[in-house]
Amino acid sequence: MASTRGHSFKLRGDRYRTDVKVEAAGGKALPCVVDVRNEQQISEAVENAVKTFGGIDILINNASAINLTGTLDTSMKKVDLMMNINARGTYLT
């Protein structure tokens, strides 16, 4: 379960499931919970990865935001959120 601004929702995935599968296949993984809009959190995750593995060979950024309303019905607040996560967050990572 996760919560944001008083709304609860069930997450369909679990970062530890992927971690367990990667390690069961003989790989190494470092699951990180990072708000991709937060440069400091991204920097800390990169530092942890470099400290743990000596560098980064692959990054899986599964963060995204979508709003399924029409253009005229989508507030700029929602557009800003989607752009900050989908474009800026991807660029930062």
**Spatial extent as radius of gyration:** 16 Å
Q: What is the succession of H and E elements?
A: EEHHH
User: Level of helix content?
Assistant: 40-55%
Structural class: mainly alpha
Pfam families: adh_short
Structural write-up:
With 93 residues, this protein is mostly helical. The chain folds into two domains: 1-31, no CATH class; 32-93, no CATH class. Mean pLDDT is 84; it is low at 1-9. 3% of the residues are buried. The chain is 45% helix and 6% strand. Strand 1 (2-4) and strand 2 form a beta hairpin. The radius of gyration is 16 Å and the shape is elongated. Strands 1-2 form a two-stranded antiparallel ribbon.
Q: Which helices and strands occur, and which strands form pairs?
A:
Blueprint: E1 2-4, E2 7-9, H1 15-24, H2 39-53, H3 76-92
Antiparallel strand pairs: 1-2
Q: Care to give the gist of this entry?
A:
One of its GO terms (cellular component) is mitochondrion. InterPro entries: HSDL2, NAD(P)-bd_dom_sf, SDR_fam. The chain has 93 residues and is mainly alpha-helical.
Protein traits:
elongated, mainly alpha
